[in-house]
Fold these 4 entries.
Entry 1:
Amino acid sequence: MLRSWGYAAVAAAAVLWTTGAQGASITYHYSSGSATITATSGTQTIGVGTLSLNGQFAAFDSTSGDLTDFSSTTPNQWIVLNTVFGGFNQVWVNSATMHPGAGYGTLATTQISPGHWNTSVMPVVVDAVYTAKNTITNTSIGPLPLSYTNATPLNATIDVIDGTFTLQGITLGIISVPGEANPLIVKADVTFVPEPAAAGLLALAGLALGLLRKRG
């Protein structure tokens, strides 16, 4: 098994060697990730939590650092509010999927170091289902579907050598709550981690990319 992975790693490096000069879009699959969630209303922060992510992939351009495509999903999890809001003290994210929206593209890219970029992208769409709960009275509303398009640029940090990226400031949803003057705004900063089996492939591919740049 180790030998077969070694052959695969050499092959991956060879592919980068031959295609890196033209800029290849490389897709990475992720076994884990996390989203730091912040729930606010007006100027008040009413909840902070961390949710796990699954079902993720991202496609990077190995030369420009552009984030050309991505998708991630959030399984059924909840955020505990630090105060009762609209009669509820928990917000359940039954499901959420983040993906590029219509007309998606990269607005700007700044290289930090070889294989490492800051990239600005838009638009990003979040399709989610929410449930509000009160654990004291055992009441709930939902599940309620909500689709939200982030029409302002979002910042992504990409490392094509490690195969990691983060996406900051994603608005998961803006929810009007009866009895409250301001809506509930749920935002997330997400971090993606490559599958362990792919780590060796990414390292060798990164080495090939570095050698290719030195030759150029």
Entry 2:
Amino acid sequence: MVYIQQLAINSYGCRDSIIKQVEIKPAYTIYIPNAFTPNSDGTNDSFRAVGVGIEEFKMQIFDRWGALVFESDDINTVWDGSIKGKEIRNQPNKKYMFGKPR
């Protein structure tokens, strides 16, 4: 908590002041991409969140049927698109897109 004091003096010399207690919360930001392409071409091959000031983190990724395919509570852990450590085959143009269902 921080105390802020404001002092005001008008053109007639009258003074007034106020002191307020203010809570300054730390700044935070998070970036989560909405797509990635884990095709080993060196561009966008993994999925991860990047943030500043994040104290707690949990990411869960589910397949279209609702099965959990990836989970982490470490913001520095990346998902490579594999499921249970196995690369997904038979998808020559693997692309994952994320967002809210409409």
Entry 3:
Amino acid sequence: MAQFSAAQVGVSAAASTTNLSNYVVTMLTVGDIASIKLISWGGLDTSLVAQNTRWCRVSNTPVTAVALTVQASSPGITPNGACNTYSGTAAAGAASPAGLFQQSWNSQGGGGVMVLPIGGEWRVSGGALGTIYNQIGCGNTVGGGSTSQSYGVQWEE
């Protein structure tokens, strides 16, 4: 299986209890499956800015995808999935604290990486946009005003 990664670097995330504005991993082809293997978050702010970032399944149909650059672990392999942000209707999940994982941190040099255990990866199943289980997103519930955050994801197909 091939692995892929994408990141949002140097962004100013908007805090929301439901919007997942940092990134969304999507599988659109029925029968395709991706496994989220690793997530990361961090900041380089020059002052203390409290953050709370969460990952959850998307529960709406976001509009106007803006593709993030995806890197493959092996040359010549093209991902079936995509990693996007949305400039129209934002991706949304159940209101915080519902979701897959949530982390409080400080964006003045704070951050972390979570490697999901073998067999405990988050699965994304292919289907039309808005289909349950075909998207997992990342967003902040706290942290507006920060200007240098980074969020990453690695998945396997």
Entry 4:
Amino acid sequence: MKLARPDIRHPRIVLVGSEGGDDAGLVAALRKRGLHARWLPWNDPDTLHADLVILRNAADYANRLDEFLAWTKRVSNLLNGADVVAWNAGKRYLRDLRHAGVPIRARRGTASAVRTALVYLGGTQSHAFDTAAASPVEADFELWDLGQAALQAAADHLGIGVDKLLYARADVIGGPGDAELVGLDLMAPSLGWQLLDDTARGDAQRQFALRVESALDRLGLGPLSHRRP
């Protein structure tokens, strides 16, 4: 029988949300990297005892925004961070991006336009999908560049590197030459995992797990960070 090594500390990871749905497979992807995680709702007191909290779904936060934002500051090592969440939850974030030079689509005239969701992991492009057709797409590089510009503007505004954003979803409308941003979700966006085929989903979720592993190492919480001398 293989015994647990006493010189290795396994960080307690909480995925905020509920098991299943679009995020099904994340616990298994993390386990393949030797990381153990469990699902909890954001208002569960046990989240306060976790070493790392990853916000994946907080559907009811809008009706309890003050309570939710206070919670983001109490938990240890939230991804994405509490300052990121507070800025993104506000109504001014698109205005901040516009002031930074990111082309933003006005609210009018968006209903019939094709909307593409661009997913980034650790600040690097991962995959894209058509939100109306609910199917993966090969997004043009100009769309990816627009999403990257929005990510960089957000990171600059928050005073962090884009690689500190575990996940991000930039929604754009239009095509090459006329694409505009309609939303940037750094809180708990649907990442469209279940729209991908098995191979693509496995690769993308592996990248997610690798980014979590990197974040743990950066925070001094990696499995090898607490070895006895």
